[in-house]
């Protein structure tokens, strides 16, 4: 039976002092200390040869380890980790295999190498866990868009704009913006649409420049109106629930770990250079755990719906009541002034009756319902 780990050197010292006393019953001491006679006599023999050094535990590490990874493999693992601090064992093993490293190590070996070199913290190990992820079954069914907060450069703030395909996690845009205004975002989105086509839906956070369904008069922003007129459905995350845009939030975590952490930039241009480089790594080199270690680029396909720079005419079905929004963002309907959105100025919206509930109407802009109106709860405007 081995020594217990509690104060091991003190226990050994105490046993030796008692066992070396004249007339000591060493067999009884073994029973009381919970060790085997073989262990006890081995310790006594070591003490006779080494003195106090016999109290120090000996390493169980073998003199040689034929199964240990070669110096070349260890160096490759450490170098790849240095290039990509956010990558774990699975990503690094997959990437080394793709790079053609002979006898590439399995993920468990890579993880052991990272631990051995102090490149994985206990906190990171505890944080690692498997998630059940929902995703759309085709590319371009849903794109997620958001700004990753902001950070300071020597020439002003940078607001990273990110756009991600839900199915493939392909990053469609990673742009260093000077602000979050529509005038900054729209040209970048137009360039994305020109290259990749149009999605069926875009999900955004609440607030500028996306608009917010929970804020009267702001449910449709100028940017949302443009997207809807292109034929895209616009949806919003639930307030205070960023998990709705979970994939783009996870992307932001990787961006922070692999690009932004511990680094400063002189200008937006310098930040954009770093973004562009990392976007290529993320899309084409970095194995993705949620994609069975495929890269996003291998899973993404461009949309068959082309981008039309000329907006189509706004049309509504026969039977809808069509009203033009006035300058103050209000629409007159059945004697009521209804606050919609000032961004809809001079644009037509449609009131569509709910045939199951008298006095209830769905309010549409183009194909998108953005409001539900119950006249039974309104007071007639004077």
Quick summary:
This protein is α+β, with helices and mostly antiparallel strands. It has helices at residues 8-19, 26-33, 37-50, 71-83, 89-98, 107-116, 122-127, 182-196, 222-229, 246-260, 268-284, 296-299, and strands at residues 143-147, 151-153, 156-165, 171-177, 201-204, 233-236, 321-324, 330-333, 336-339, 348-353, 360-365, 368-374. The strands form three sheets. Strands 1, 2, 3, 4, 5 and 6 form a six-stranded mixed β-sheet that branches.
Word description of this protein:
The chain has 382 residues and is of the alpha+beta class. It folds into 4 domains: 48 residues; 57 residues, no CATH class; 157 residues, Nucleotidyltransferase, domain 5 (2-Layer Sandwich); 57 residues, no CATH class. It contains 12 helices and 12 strands. Strand 3 and strand 4 form a beta hairpin. Helix 5 packs across helix 6.
Explain the layout of strands and helices.
Blueprint: H1 8-19, H2 26-33, H3 37-50, H4 71-83, H5 89-98, H6 107-116, H7 122-127, E1 143-147, E2 151-153, E3 156-165, E4 171-177, H8 182-196, E5 201-204, H9 222-229, E6 233-236, H10 246-260, H11 268-284, H12 296-299, E7 321-324, E8 330-333, E9 336-339, E10 348-353, E11 360-365, E12 368-374
Parallel strand pairs: 1-5, 5-6
Antiparallel strand pairs: 1-3, 2-3, 3-4, 7-10, 8-9, 10-11, 11-12
Strand content: 15-25%
- Helix share, percent: 25-40%
Q: What do we call the CATH topology of the largest domain?
A: Nucleotidyltransferase, domain 5
CATH-defined superfamily of the largest domain: Ribonuclease H-like superfamily/Ribonuclease H
The largest sheet, given as strand count, sense and whether it forms a barrel, is:
6 strands, mixed
């Amino acid at each position: 039976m081995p020594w217990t780990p509690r104060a091991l050197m003190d226990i050994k010292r105490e046993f030796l002092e008692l066992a070396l006393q004249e007339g000591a019953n060493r067999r009884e001491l073994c029973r009381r200390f919970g060790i085997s006679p073989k262990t006890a006599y081995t310790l006594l023999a070591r003490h006779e040869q080494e003195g106090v050094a016999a109290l120090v535990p000996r390493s169980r590490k073998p003199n040689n380890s034929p199964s240990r990874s070669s110096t070349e493999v260890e160096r490759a693992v450490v170098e790849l980790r240095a290039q990509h601090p956010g990558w774990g064992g699975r990503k690094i093993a997959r990437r080394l295999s793709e790079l053609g490293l002979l006898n590439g190590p399995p993920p468990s070996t890579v993880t052991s190498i990272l631990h051995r070199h102090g490149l994985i913290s206990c906190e990171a190990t505890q944080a690692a866990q498997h998630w059940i992820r929902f995703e759309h079954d085709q590319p371009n069914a849903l794109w997620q868009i958001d700004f990753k907060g902001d950070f300071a450069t020597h020439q002003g703030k940078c607001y990273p704009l990110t756009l991600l395909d839900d199915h493939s996690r392909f990053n469609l845009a990673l742009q260093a913006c000077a602000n979050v205004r529509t005038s900054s975002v729209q040209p970048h989105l137009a360039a994305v649409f020109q290259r990749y086509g149009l999605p069926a839906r875009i999900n955004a956070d609440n607030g500028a420049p996306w608009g917010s369904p929970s804020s009267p008069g702001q449910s449709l922003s100028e940017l949302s109106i443009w997207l809807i007129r292109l034929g895209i459905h616009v949806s919003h995350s639930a307030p205070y629930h960023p998990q709705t845009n979970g994939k783009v939030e996870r992307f932001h975590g990787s961006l922070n770990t692999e690009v932004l952490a511990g680094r400063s930039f002189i200008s937006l241009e310098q930040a954009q250079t770093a973004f562009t480089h990392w976007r290529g790594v993320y899309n084409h080199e970095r194995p993705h755990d949620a994609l069975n270690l495929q890269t996003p680029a291998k899973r993404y396909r461009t949309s068959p719906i082309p981008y039309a720079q000329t907006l189509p005419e706004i049309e509504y079905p026969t039977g809808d009541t069509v009203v033009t929004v006035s300058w103050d963002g209000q629409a007159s309907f059945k004697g009521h002034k209804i606050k919609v959105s000032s961004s809809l100025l001079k644009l037509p919206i449609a009131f569509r009756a709910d045939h199951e509930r008298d006095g209830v109407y769905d309010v549409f802009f183009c194909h998108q319902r953005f409001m539900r109106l119950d006249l039974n709860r309104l007071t007639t405007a004077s």
